[in-house]
Each structure stands twice: as C-alpha cells, then as structure tokens.
Amino acid sequence: MQTIQIYQLKDFVGQEVKLRGWVRNWRKQSSKLRFVVLRDGTGEVQCVAHKPDMGEEAFEAVKALSIETSLEVWGTVGRHPRREGVFEIALKRVVPMQVAVDYPIGKKEHGPDFLLGQRHLWLRSSRQWAQLRIRHTVYSAIEGFLNGQGFIRFDSPILTPSSCEDTTTLFEVPYFDMGSAYLSQSGQLYLEAGIMSLRRVYDFGPVFRAEKSKTRKHLTEFWMMDAEAAFVEHEENMQIQEDLIRHIIRTVLERCATELETLERDTDTLRRADAPFPRWTHRQAIDYLKSKGCDIDYSDDFGAAEEEMLTAESDTPVFIERWPAEIKAFYMRRDPESPGLALCSDLLAPEGFGEIIGGSERETDHDELQSRMKSLGMPMDEYQWYLDLRKYGSVPHSGFGIGLERTVGWMAGSRHVRECIPFPRMISRVTP
Ligand code: 4AD
Ligand code: MG
Q1: How many other CB atoms are found less than 10 A from the CB of residue 127?
Q2: How many angstroms does the Cα of residue 359 sit away from the middle of ligand 2?
Q3: Which residue of 135, 192, 397, 399 lies most exposed, with the fewest beta carbons within 10 A?
Q4: What is the reported pLDDT for 107?
C-alpha cells in the first residue's frame, strides 16, 4: 500500500492508501458514524469512520481523536457523493503519533491579539494555510518573471552603514568598535552598484523600518523585492512593473484555485485587474481628489483614504507618476521638462489595497546628486561609494521595489498584512 499526500488523492480513487497528518476537526454523526477532517499540509480531506466497516476496536481509536492530534490513517479513496473534484477516505484504521490535549484555538471567535499570541499554532488554520501558500506563489511568480527578463539575483546587505529611504525609520544595532550599523530599509542603492556589473539585478529579502505606523498595511519587518536595470528610463520602468504584476495575477489564478476558494476571494475581480494600468500624474491625482471634495494640496502625499478614492473606479492598479521632488527620495531623477518633479511612480492596487510598488528613474549626474545630498545634510563620507557610480561610466537607470506582504494581501483579499507573513513584526509585537 502506498503512502500518499492529500494533493495526490485524485490519482488513487478506489485504492487503499496511507496518509499522515493532523486532525483538523471531527464530528459525530451517530453512534456508528464519525467524520474526521485530516489535513496534511498539502490539503484537507474528510475521512469517514463507519463502525460496521471498521470494527469495534478501530472505531474506538477514531473516537479518541482530538483536534490537532498527529496521526497515520489507512483507508480507501473515494469520490465525494455530491461535490465534484472532492475526495473522501473510507477509514480502515487510525494510529495517533502524538495526542494533542486542549488545543487552544477552538471553534469560537478569537480576537486578533489572542490569535497573534498563538501565531505558532494559528498558522495551521485553513485561512492562514491558504494565505501562506499564496505568498509562496507570489514569491515564485516574481522570481520567474525576473529570471525570464534577464535579471540576475544580487543579494544586498542587511547590515548597512546608512539609510536608503529615510533616516527617521532606521533600526540601529551596535556594531563592534565601529559604533552603530542599521538594518536595511531597501537594497536599492547597492543594486545600483550591481547593475554596472550585471546590467539587470534584483534582491529579495527582509527589510526593516522603524515606522510608528499602526495601520493594516505596515510591518516593521517586511519582504521586498527590489529590481534595478541599466539603460531603462522612467516609462519602461513602469512597463516592467505592469508586466510583472499582470504575471503575478495570472500565476496566482492558475496555481492557487483551492487557496482562493478557501479564502472566498472574488476571482473575477482579480481577473479584471489583468489589463493595461492607467497612468496619472500626481497633479492629475490631486485635481481628481479636489474634485471629489478632498482637502489636499499639490505638495501632499496620500493617506489610505485618498489611495482608496484614486483606485475606486479602476479594475486595475493605477500608477501615480511624477511627484513633487521635495516629498520623494533624494536619489530620484528630476523631470527635465519640469525640474520640480521627480521621475517616479507609485503603483496603487485596486480594491483599497494601497501602494504595492514604489519606483523611479535614478539621478545619473554626479554634481547634481552631490549638491542635492549636501543640501539635505547627508553624511557624504558614507555615500562616497554611491557617488562613485556617477563618476565611472554613469548610465540612465531605473528600478522599483515591490512589497511582498501587500501584494499577497491584495491577491488573497486579506485586509491586514499581518496575516501575509509567517511571524509578523509590528510596533507592538515581536513575539512569538
Ligand atoms: O516605496 P518604498 O519605500 O520604496 C523603496 O524602498 C525603494 N527604495 C524601492 C526601489 O526603488 N527599489 O517601498 C517599496 C514597497 C512599497 O510600495 C510597499 O509595498 C512596501 O514596500 N512597504 C511596506 N510593506 C509593509 N510594511 C511597511 N512598513 C512598508 N513600507 C513599504
Ligand atoms: Mg513608497
């Protein structure tokens, strides 16, 4: 008899098999009939225990099963009597590996704080399972897309001497007799060095921001993929992002049907997002918001409510490009036609999921960048290497960073990014 996994059941209909997993749940139908839902990491299957078929002793073993007990089961694979594509196991025998007593996550509603405190166990629930599998799929879709476009993986350092995005959000760590180092907020600056060797590079790893934002969209440790490409300018940079996102949508729809169903995700909405993305300038966006009655100015950033309004009428994500330079990062290239603007874009996901990508063309002129950095009071010694890139064969180049958890949240329809990473780190939580 073969030991199989739940995802393989369709190939074993009518055969006797052995499975290994955990008890998701059980239900008593009558004194002779019980149902046990088995999960094994690859899926769930209902096992039917019928006393007359199993015999007294084997049935007693089923009666002793408790939620989350690990076990081996033997039985025959059958088709669910009513549900197409769903399988069942007619149980012959169960053998517990370890009996779980009083599993703390029950059927009653638990508050988010309790569940986050039990994150090591909460991970097993079907919604969490589905979200983490979608995370895996988004991750591999991003890698697949980039590899197909000639991007080379280039791992940027996590311990850095200085900031990429903003000095106020750095996590500081003691670093031997050199004083302090800081956890990376984005590998971008290092990728800019990488492209001068490899042309197109990307990194994919955890980044850290000591932001005091207590929102559904902020983590202090999150995963970002930064991509950077030589000889790519602003317009093409946005095209690469659009192609990437549309590839992610298609991959998730193709590979995650069960997961999306488990989450009751509206897949038609996702399907409709796979179409060309509108491009609005920041100024057009502000005009639009003003026309909707928002109290907002041409030099303002958007909050969650504004982001939601900007995408309310769009099925697809929306690019907001050419922002006022003073509210964007120092490294962005200025629009030659309008030097007050930066050649950058934010990509806002539809359905209120907010900003998922930030990107820009980078400043290539040494003196221009140097004077900008000086006027911002940046520590020039630490950035000398970055300025060197503008001294030895500077070329037009662009890049962007996509937030993994926010993208997963959008795909999965999860309103809180804390469910889109195995162990979320937020201002008020670093455990378990
Ligand atoms: O827009 P950001 O700050 O861009 C950068 O860091 C650039 N250096 C990237 C680049 O050009 N290579 O961050 C990029 C993305 C955001 O669009 C968002 O999806 C995500 O990272 N992000 C967060 N996700 C979760 N929690 C937070 N606190 C986040 N901050 C940003
Ligand atoms: Mg941003």
Answers
A1: 15
A2: 8
A3: 192
A4: 67
* DSSP code for 102: S
Q: Which residues contact 256 (CB under 8 A, 6 or more apart)?
A: 130, 133, 134, 137, 411
pLDDT in tens, 416-428: 999 999 999 999 9
* Structural tokens at position 322: 């050419």
pLDDT-derived band at 362, boundaries 50, 70, 90: very high
Nearest CA to ligand 1 atom 20: 403
**77 CB under 6 A from ligand 1?**
no
Cα separation, 404 vs 204, whole angstroms: 9
* Ligand minimally distant from the alpha carbon of residue 190: 1
Portion of the chain with pLDDT greater than 70, in percent: 100
Rounded Cα distance between 43 and 32, Å, is 26
In angstroms, the CA 237 to CA 322 distance is 13
Over its C-alpha atoms, the chain yields an Rg (Å, rounded) of 26
All structural domains of the chain: 2-98 (2.40.50.140), 119-419 (3.30.930.10)
Our answer on whether the CB atom of 188 is closer than 6 Å to any ligand 1 atom is yes
The DSSP code for 278 is: P
Angle at 51 between CA 45 and CA 53, to 5 degrees: 80
Q: Determine the Cα–Cα distance for residues 62 and 72; give it in Å rounded to an integer.
A: 11
Give mean pLDDT, residues 31-39: 98
Cβ-defined contacts of 83-87 (< 8 Å, 24+): 85/10, 87/9, 87/10, 87/13, 87/45
Q: Is the CB of 399 under 6 A from ligand 1?
A: yes
Q: Which atom of ligand 1 is nearest to the CA of 356?
A: 19
Which residue among 212, 222, 362 is best mutated to probe the pocket of ligand 1, counting the most ligand atoms within 8 A of its Cβ? 222
* pLDDT value at residue 397: 98
234: Cβ below 6 Å to ligand 1?
A: no
- Residue 286: Cβ-neighbour burial (10 angstroms; 0-12, 13-18, 19+): buried
Q: Is the CB of 4 under 6 A from ligand 1?
A: no
Of the candidates 167, 67, 208, the one whose C-alpha atom is nearest the C-alpha of residue 376 is 167
Whether the model pTM is above 0.90: yes
User: What atom in ligand 1 is closest to the CA of residue 354?
Assistant: 19
For 153-168, the pLDDT digits (tens) are: 999 999 999 877 877 7
Question: Which of 221, 406, 408, 411 for mutating ligand 1's site (highest number of atoms within 8 Å of CB)?
Answer: 406
